[in-house]
UniProtKB/TrEMBL annotation:
Alphabetical UniProt keywords: 4Fe-4S, Iron, Iron-sulfur, Metal-binding, Oxidoreductase
SUPFAM superfamilies: Formate dehydrogenase/DMSO reductase, domains 1-3 (SSF53706)
One GO location term (cellular component): cell envelope
GO biological process: anaerobic respiration
Residue ranges annotated for the 4Fe-4S Mo/W bis-MGD-type domain, each copy included: 44-100
Cofactor (UniProt): [4Fe-4S] cluster
GO terms, molecular function: 4 iron, 4 sulfur cluster binding; electron transfer activity; molybdenum ion binding; oxidoreductase activity
Protein name per its UniProtKB record: Dehydrogenase
Originating species: Saccharomonospora piscinae
One Pfam assignment: Molybdop_Fe4S4
Region entry Disordered, spans: 18-39
Presence of keyword Oxidoreductase: yes
Length: 188
């Protein structure tokens, strides 16, 4: 490459000679940048999601290839975050693919001293069985002659990381199960 061609390849010179005064078009491109492909170009599909870290509800685009999450970025269509994510939201890919991700549950039996590892399906079945058992044993059809149709056998305390829609659905679920003690951490 001769000296003249080398000088003409400078982005600043191209910025002024090509009419790209802001330097965001052709002036910012190079042979290397022209050969790059986006990290998300190989994805089979994009799934819309919400960042799980706080109650702001920043929208995310989750890129999936062969059933595996490959990349997560902010959703530019979101009126809440407009495509931006905080450092924690930007690192949320680690929640799904990171080596520290837990896919088993530690369980200690009543009066036990040791923890044992259970798979998620077994743990979910145990929770469902206990909820139904507590509902059945704590059911009150009426109290002092008034129809109540409720259970005092379990309660729910929600977390502040849930958005309004999740809290709404949880309230509906626990109300349908007959629970009356439903509260959220954000109100306490």
């Amino acid at each position: 490459m001769g000296p003249r061609r080398w000088i003409e390849s400078w982005p600043v010179l191209r910025q002024f000679t090509d009419g790209d005064r802001t330097g965001r078009g052709a002036a910012a491109k190079s042979r290397v940048s022209e050969s790059l492909t986006p990290r998300t170009s190989g994805a089979d599909k994009v799934v819309k999601s919400i960042c799980p870290y706080c109650a702001v509800g920043c929208a995310q685009n989750v890129y999936v290839k062969d059933g595996e999450v490959t990349h997560i970025e902010g959703d530019p269509d979101s009126p809440v975050s407009r495509g931006r994510l905080c450092p924690k939201g930007s690192a949320s890919l680690q929640l799904t693919t990171g080596p520290a991700r837990e896919d088993r549950v530690l369980y200690r039996r009543p009066y036990g001293t040791e923890w044992e590892s259970l798979d998620l399906d077994t743990a979910m079945d145990m929770i469902a069985d206990r909820v139904l058992d507590a509902r059945e044993h704590g059911w009150q059809s009426e109290v002092d002659g008034l129809v109540t149709n409720r259970t005092l056998g379990f309660a729910h305390l929600g977390g502040a990381t849930l958005d309004n829609e999740e809290n709404y659905l949880l309230k509906k679920l626990y109300t349908a199960l007959g629970a009356v003690q439903i509260e959220n951490q954000a109100r306490i």
